[in-house]
């Protein structure tokens, strides 16, 4: 509608309300100053007052249906669209409007008039907000109206009865949203709830332990599934199992040892991910050779704590001499052995000291205790014994624990990504805080092995920073189901707009001659010519603009899924009310271990490493 005509409607409504309120004021003048004009006005209102009130009730809400009629104070929008609140406001408006129209039949009109008048004023805003007209060129993204249920699918309830369906989660799920956007509550927790109901095994990386771990425990307990539940946590040992990520059965060849070494080194020294110089390569080789030596000659003591303490020994020559006795190990560290033989002491000292400084960060009694036991197997999706493993960390200690969690994930994913296994998933909350070697291959290769990859991050730039541009692009492209919440990065917002794509929109353009009246209050000026025209064009426009992504509210997500009725979606995700077994009360994560002596265990590991270096047989 023409802006001048909108202003005309506003003016008419204001005039009508002034007339309507004049009827209320007239009652006071009628008793205090019964002048002739007051009597005439009273007769006018007696005949036309109900008509004025009816016009007010009809026209007033229309003022708030125009797209540009949002009330703002200092750029802060008042009365943003809220479906439930607008319905309540509409009910208030309807009751107030009916009572106000027939106020002349009320025995106490002077008392009720201002209350009903106020109810119409406030309620009309919400009615107009409920009926707000969208511009013709704004395309709405249609959402699915029914959930799609399969033995492996995920579904998320949206606003106004809509659904976001992920019929094929094995194609991978990417969840991007800034802190506070609702990633965990609106996406991660509903996924965990459905994995429990559908008997998924797998891994959860709990960045804010124990939030997702507690939730997963409760959901898997309620589902009465046969999935084993295990927790690895390096802070609260009462709530942690023990696992040996370097068990010889996970290291069939030296190539496996190298990949596990890369996982540890890359997280201890993030700069090594994209810059692999001599020092980094030599450090990785030293760690690889130590793992492979222990795997071959001391399989019982092949654990991360033992490997770390061997490298942290007082004289690195003792360890190098052990490698000289094994051809494969010597070949792995040939550059180091050559440098030693050529008396390049400064060079070797630089390599060893770099590695020792890094490994010292993970040489704690708590870590040694957790990683030197073996309560369960990392063959998590074994059909005979499927398990869920929760790996806990905290924002303040993520740099210390990331190397270990990454190594555990690397070992577990190699086992999970095999044929004829139980359906499983790996959910990484704040995934860029971990670097998992060759992870970009997992979404593409694991889908055929029924492994769901859920990669959650605050921004696409985080993935690029940790994995590099090429690997980040591969990860994003291999994850085919995308959820985007509110972000603060313009590049990410532009990427979301491009991913959702474009659509043809009908654009109407009106043209009017200068002598043509454009307002309800204008009249024809002279006998000049007038002309009016309209052109309709089909133009390709972005469905979602970057600003739309910036303005998303908590729980609102834009995205695209594979196999849904409507591949694109834009809705506020809503948690469903629990029913059936989900109503069963479950206590929090129980105490797993009580009787342990971490100092005794730590000292035992040190003594065993000294014996290995001296060639003493260990009973």
UniProtKB/TrEMBL annotation:
The keyword Amino-acid biosynthesis does not apply. InterPro entries: P-loop_NTPase (IPR027417), T4SS-coupling_protein (IPR051539), TraG/VirD4 (IPR003688). It is found in: Cell membrane. Residues 511-532 are annotated as: Disordered. The chain crosses the membrane at residues 7-30, 50-66, 87-104, 110-131. Coiled coil: none annotated. The keyword Flavoprotein does not apply. Keywords: Cell membrane, Membrane, Transmembrane, Transmembrane helix. Its main location: membrane. GO terms for cellular component: plasma membrane. It is a multi-pass membrane protein. SUPFAM superfamilies: P-loop containing nucleoside triphosphate hydrolases. Belongs to the VirD4/TraG family. PANTHER family: CONJUGATIVE TRANSFER: DNA TRANSPORT. This is Type IV secretory system conjugative DNA transfer VirD4/TraG family protein. It comes from Arcicella aurantiaca.
């Amino acid at each position: 509608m023409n802006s001048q005509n909108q202003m005309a409607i506003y003016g008419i409504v204001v005039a009508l309300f002034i007339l309507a309120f004049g009827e209320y004021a007239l009652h006071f003048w009628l008793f205090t100053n019964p002048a002739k004009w007051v009597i005439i006005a009273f007769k006018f209102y007696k005949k036309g007052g109900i008509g004025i009130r009816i016009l007010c009730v009809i026209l007033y809400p229309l003022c708030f249906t125009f797209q540009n009629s949002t009330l703002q104070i200092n750029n802060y929008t008042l009365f943003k669209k809220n479906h439930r609140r607008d319905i309540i406001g509409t009910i208030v408006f309807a009751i107030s409007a009916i009572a106000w129209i027939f106020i002349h039949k009320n025995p106490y009109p002077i008392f009720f008039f201002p209350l009903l008048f106020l109810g119409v004023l406030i309620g009309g805003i919400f009615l107009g907000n409920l009926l707000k007209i969208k511009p013709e060129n704004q395309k709405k993204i249609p959402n699915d109206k029914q959930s799609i249920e399969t033995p492996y699918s995920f579904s998320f309830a949206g606003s106004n009865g809509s659904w976001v369906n992920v019929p094929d989660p094995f194609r991978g799920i990417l969840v991007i949203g800034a802190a506070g956007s609702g990633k965990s509550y609106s996406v991660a927790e509903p996924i965990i709830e459905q994995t429990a109901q559908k008997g998924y095994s797998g891994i959860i990386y709990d960045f804010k332990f124990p939030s997702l771990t507690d939730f997963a425990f409760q959901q898997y307990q309620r589902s009465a599934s046969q999935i084993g539940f295990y927790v690895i946590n390096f802070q609260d040992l009462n709530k942690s199992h023990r696992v040996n990520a370097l068990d010889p059965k996970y290291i069939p060849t030296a190539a496996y040892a190298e990949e596990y070494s890369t996982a540890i080194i890359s997280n201890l020294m993030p700069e090594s991910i994209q810059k692999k110089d001599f020092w980094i390569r030599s450090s990785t080789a030293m760690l690889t050779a130590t793992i492979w030596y222990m795997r071959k000659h001391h399989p019982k003591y092949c654990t991360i704590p033992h490997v770390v303490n061997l490298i942290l020994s007082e004289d690195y020559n003792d360890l190098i001499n052990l490698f000289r006795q094994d051809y494969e190990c010597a070949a792995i560290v040939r550059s180091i052995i050559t440098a030693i033989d050529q008396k390049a002491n400064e060079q070797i000292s630089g390599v060893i000291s770099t590695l020792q400084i890094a490994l010292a960060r993970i040489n704690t009694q708590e870590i040694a205790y957790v990683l030197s036991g073996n309560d369960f197997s990392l063959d998590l999706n074994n059909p005979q014994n499927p398990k869920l493993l929760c790996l806990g960390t905290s924002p303040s200690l993520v740099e210390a624990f990331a190397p270990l969690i990454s190594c555990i994930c690397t070992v577990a994913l190699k086992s999970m990504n095999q044929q004829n296994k139980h359906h499983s998933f790996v959910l990484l909350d704040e995934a860029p805080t971990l670097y998992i070697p060759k992870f970009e291959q997992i979404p593409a290769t694991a889908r055929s092995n029924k492994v769901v990859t859920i990669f959650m991050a605050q921004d696409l730039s985080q993935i690029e920073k940790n994995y590099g541009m090429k690997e980040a692009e591969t990860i994003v492209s291999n994850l085919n189901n995308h959820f985007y919440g509110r972000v603060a990065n313009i590049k990410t917002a532009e990427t979301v707009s491009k991913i959702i794509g474009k659509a043809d929109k009908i654009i109407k353009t009106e043209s009017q001659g200068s002598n043509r009246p454009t307002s309800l209050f204008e009249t024809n000026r002279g006998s000049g010519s007038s002309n009016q025209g309209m052109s309709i064009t089909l133009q390709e426009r972005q469905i979602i603009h970057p600003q739309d992504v910036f303005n998303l509210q908590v729980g609102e997500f834009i995205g695209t899924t594979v196999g849904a009725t409507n591949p694109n979606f834009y809705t506020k995700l809503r948690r469903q009310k629990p029913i059936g077994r989900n109503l069963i009360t479950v206590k929090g994560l129980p105490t797993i271990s009580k009787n342990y002596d971490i100092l005794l265990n730590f000292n035992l590991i040190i003594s065993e490493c000294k014996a290995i270096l001296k060639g003493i047989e260990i009973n």
